[in-house]
């Protein structure tokens, strides 16, 4: 029987996701950089979150025997690595203080971690629900 994730872990995952995202976005809002730079970093954040969820889903699907095409699996990983590379290049060349660069890097990583764990918790909760429903149905017969 699959175990449902604890409420504490689910809450911590959502807090990590929102703390990272809000920190990153508030940092952009208050930054003195040009609007096109803010757009660049915001796009990397959104693309990174999507890529992280996509990678987690592909990995989980493969583990559970759900068919995943190699091209989608590969593109998911390339996308995730590309967002990290683009953020690194952007921060390396940015005229920001080192502390600001570190802030954006860690807010991004916290957001990605949060997105992965929220996705994992969602899958685990669904799997536990399906297992419970299947077990209850089998018990009736």
From TrEMBL:
The keyword Isomerase does not apply. The chain crosses the membrane at residues 7-28, 40-59, 71-91, 103-119. The keyword Transmembrane applies. Keywords: Membrane, Transmembrane, Transmembrane helix. InterPro entries: YiaA-like, YiaAB. It holds the Pfam family YiaAB. Residues 9-61, 72-124 form the YiaAB two helix domain. NCBIfam families: PRK11383.1 (NF008482). This is Inner membrane protein YiaA. It comes from Chitinophaga nivalis. The lineage of its organism: Bacteria, Pseudomonadati, Bacteroidota, Chitinophagia, Chitinophagales.
